[in-house]
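Student: I would love a firmer grasp of how sequence relates to backbone shape in proteins. I am handing you a single protein, as its sequence and its fold in token form. I am told such tokens are a discrete way to write the fold. I hope you can help me see how the letters and the tokens relate. Take your time, and here it is.
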Amino acid sequence: MKKILSLLLAGLMMVSVVACTTDTPDATTTTPAASTTTAKSTTSKTTFEQIDRPDDMPEDWILLESQYEWHYKTFVCPFNRDADPQFDPETDEMAKWLAEKGEEWYKDPAVLAEMAEWPTHTAPMGDRYDPVGEGNSPIGWGGDAHGLICYATFNLTAEQMEWVGKAEINDIYMNVFYDNAFYLYINGELVFFEDANGGEGDWNESQEPVDFMDGVDIRTILKEGENTVVAKLKDCWGGREFLFGLECVYSY
């Protein structure tokens, strides 16, 4: 879709002069607490733009491969689309687990150590990728198990951090596929969320480049050596998917 939009814009520029405008966010950019599910983040990447590449930088570079091995845990969270709330707090295992771990669970050393003991699976995850059949998941993320939390660590070299330091603020983006209600934390910082609170639209329906939420400068969050990344998803209905990587592409 992003490439199609880029081609359409290029065609318009050939026949007329197009004035540039700034998109108006369709939702608040206020950062919620980890347990809040009433807001959506905004992203600024609406087309796959050509980026000027410094002469001493590689043309395309990847910091975290999308097909990466994650520790994971699924949670039984029965969903009732007609109810309010749709997830019953009495039967929502994810809500109970998060309440037990505390508001900043995603950077608590004890919680990170617990997640590091969870079983592992290589992304992508979700029933669209399951060879067994529709509605099944190789990690058990199906049926009433709507909740999923994933944890991983990845290392960045001094050379990679030099690339990060030379990059512009939106050069590094997420190569991501999520469905749905998605929160992402890197090195203990909330860097992206999209959550419609049980409504529709809080998913990225195909693997596409997505910027971090407004106000996040990922260059100041990444570090040489070990980095931690935590993803929290909560499916509501239909298919469920998770895939995440970090990369920079200077050409398309």
Notes: The chain has one domain: 3-27+39-249. The longest strand covers residues 147-156. The helical segments are 2-15, 93-101, 109-115, 158-166. The longest helix spans residues 2-15.
